[in-house]
Amino acid sequence: MHLLRGALRNYAWGSRTALAELCGRPVPSVHPEAEMWFGAHPADPARLLIGDDAVSLLDAVAADPVRELGSDVAPRFGNRLPFLLKLLAAEEPLSLQAHPSAIQARDGFARENRARVPIDAPTRNYRDDSPKPELVVALDRFEALAGFRDPHATIALFAALEVPALAKYSALLAGQPDSSGLRALFTTWITLPERALATLLPEVLDGCVAYLSASHGRGQFGKEVRTAIELADTYPGDAGVLCSLLLNRITLQPGEGLYLDAGNLHAYLRGVAVEIMANSDNVLRGGLTPKHVDVPELLRVLDFEPVEVPILHPGGAGGARRYPTPAAEFALSRIDLDATNPTADVTVDGPNILLCTKGSVQLRSGDTVLELRRGAAAWVSAADAHVSVTTSEGNAQMFCASVGRAG
Ligand SMILES: [Zn+2]
Q1: Rounded CA gap, 45 and 56, in Å?
Q2: Which regions form coiled coils (predicted)?
Q3: What are the residues whose beta carbons fall under 8 Å from the beta carbon of 108, sequence distance 6 or more?
Q4: What CATH topology corresponds to 9-54+83-145+252-289?
Q5: Of 14, 148, 294, 303, which sees the most CB atoms within 10 A?
Q6: Do residues 110 and 232 touch, judged by C-beta distance below 8 A?
Q7: C-alpha distance from residue 200 to each of 113, 247, 303, 369, 377 (Å)
């Protein structure tokens, strides 16, 4: 067991305060800080702090995969750590995106290899052959769009906006209020010729503004409509703004989670969260980004089935409570400690990354004792003894990332 120093990622959509504050560094930071990666991703591995050395976790796992990952996990995932744990702070919306299934990722990766698209080309969709399920858990209020809304509710939203130009799209959806209708409408909007978009989008946005003022911001679709206006501010003229009106608008309260399986169209809007995902870079973008957008490929992987995306709470009582997800690559549990429940145990049957998000905790594994402040993490290898966690003072919260069960 060692302290693990995360890799800080500066993206323009990040925050100059949230991660610095969480990790106890001066505020505001020089650059917007978007993510802190705790994992063994080749692009930016975290570092094990061993004595005066900072050893790449990627190198440590490669040097002795069976010791670090365990004899079960190492062969299951090709001697690689299968998950990446992140702290994420979004001040501005991230792109509209979806991730491929296992089969789509394998096919897409092979196809782009055959076409000789360089692995680091900005036009490359599939940088590896893995699916990328992800789970995001809010640390403060977290805002997102995820999954297609029930078409009947979307028809009601269009009606509320009172925009004549929306009538034909509303009719399209009313004729087929299911995944086929959503596919047809989304495909029409995301591929709308520039001139048609330049007429439709301002009319819809005018409708949004009128709706907000007529309902004094308290209408049934207030959040959805405000989101479209905000997205249009950041990405003017982007078809993704229209498409945002088709998606579930979700607010997570602290501790609540959202699981995004293959094909789920989503966009993170704002907030601070813990995120865990399969260790993959496979993202298909549909807009709201200056990065590469490949609409045909996105359409190929999207799941248009309307869903109410469930908000997840960790299951079980006391100790490490786990968020229920089907992912094979990862599992995420949360440990809450206070004066009445000051200790908990972490069972080690594979690699674990422990991340303190509130207060501070003391970790004990065999003879090793570590203090974990808020924002700090530790690596527990499969060879380490079970870990007992104690709050150093008052309330504390820790997340525990591990490998999911074999399917
Ligand atoms: Zn995503």
Answers
A1: 6
A2: none
A3: 100, 125, 126, 282, 297
A4: Jelly Rolls (2.60.120)
A5: 148
A6: no
A7: 39, 18, 25, 61, 48
The CATH number given to 320-402 is 2.60.120.10
Residue 2 annotated as lining a ligand binding site: no
Distance CA(365)–CA(1), nearest Å, equals 7
Ligand 1 centroid from CA 129, angstroms = 16
pLDDT digits (tens, 9 = 90+) for 110-161: 999 999 999 889 889 998 888 899 999 999 999 999 999 999 999 999 999 9
Q: Please give the distance, rounded to the nearest whole angstrom, from the Cα atom of residue 298 to the centre of ligand 1.
A: 13
Kindly state the tokens that stand for 273: 């969260």
The pLDDT tens digits of the residues spanning 56-106 come to 999 999 999 999 999 999 999 999 999 999 999 999 998 999 999 999 999
How many residues in the chain? 407
293-316 pLDDT per residue, tens: 889 999 999 999 998 889 999 998
Q: Is 285 a catalytic residue?
A: yes
CA of 97 to the centre of ligand 1 (A): 6
DSSP per-residue letters across 60-129: HHHH-HHHHH-TTHHHHTTTS--EEEEEEEESSPPPEEE---HHHHHHHHHHHHHTT--TT-TT-S-SSS
Contact of 264 with 283, CB cutoff 8 Å: no
Given the residues 270, 285, 334, 374, the one annotated as active site? 285
- Please list the residue range(s) of the chain that carry CATH number 2.60.120.10: 9-54+83-145+252-289, 320-402
> Is the preceding peptide bond at 28 cis, omega within 30 degrees of 0?
yes
264's tokens: 């789920």
